[in-house]
């Protein structure tokens, strides 16, 4: 039997002792004898064990208490989970090599990488809950903001894993939470006053592009381009009874824009984009800061 199957004699005896492979007969001196049927049974046991089935599962198949197909389906699910965890471990190790991480960072990275999508989503939900708790804000606006969740793929790149680690650290940072809370308070004041939270939304892409172009060209906020852009913003923003040329009004507009301008808030969305593979989100905060400076001139 050992020569025919390639299994050690010790293994065959073990299966026999476990009642997986009862001998067909025994000699007068007690040696176990096996026939062709037993040989086929041993080949089946060998195959099932090579596929990763435990002794209990093998016994259930041989006793026809379950089917190979049903067990295979269950083991596929288990293997998929093992593969997912191995890929995450590989991603952590790649990130460790790339960042030359020390022990404490490695422990944090492994903990965050091992979280499920549901656990990651809960972390984000808790963040948005805290920064808006008790505020009268536009529910649709904040529903859109909080609907984006980090979905780390089964085989993340080091960049995706690093982005998730940075995002998890960011949303647990007290200063960042306070900054987003201040944005929420400003939003709530505007919302309850019946004003537009983000006036002239359709013009923002043009304003941002013009500010970025001027910034790239090395122009100052008090340049002709800066003054022209400030004029357009103030004129579009001004409501009834408001003078777009008034310095106080322009300072008010600049303050409103500045409240919603934060490098870390932009970084939040850039990290979310990296994790979820949305494509790069360009940095616009310096351009918006240039625009607010132009309004204050």
Q: What can you see in these coordinates?
A:
With 297 residues, this protein is an all-alpha fold. The chain has three domains: 2-62, Multidrug-efflux Transporter Regulator, Chain: A, Domain 2, CATH 1.10.1660.10; 80-183, no CATH class; 198-296, no CATH class. Helix content is 69%, strand content 1%. It has 15 helices and two strands. A two-stranded antiparallel sheet has the order 1-2. α11 (201-216) packs antiparallel against α12 (224-237) and α12 packs across α15. The longest helix has 32 residues, at 68-99. The chain is rod-shaped and about 115 Å long. The model has no long low-confidence stretch (mean pLDDT 87). Residues 1-64 form the HTH merR-type domain. This is DNA-binding transcriptional MerR regulator.
Characteristics of this structure?
mainly alpha; two-stranded antiparallel sheet; Multidrug-efflux Transporter Regulator, Chain: A, Domain 2; 2 strands; single chain; 3 domains; 297 residues; 15 helices
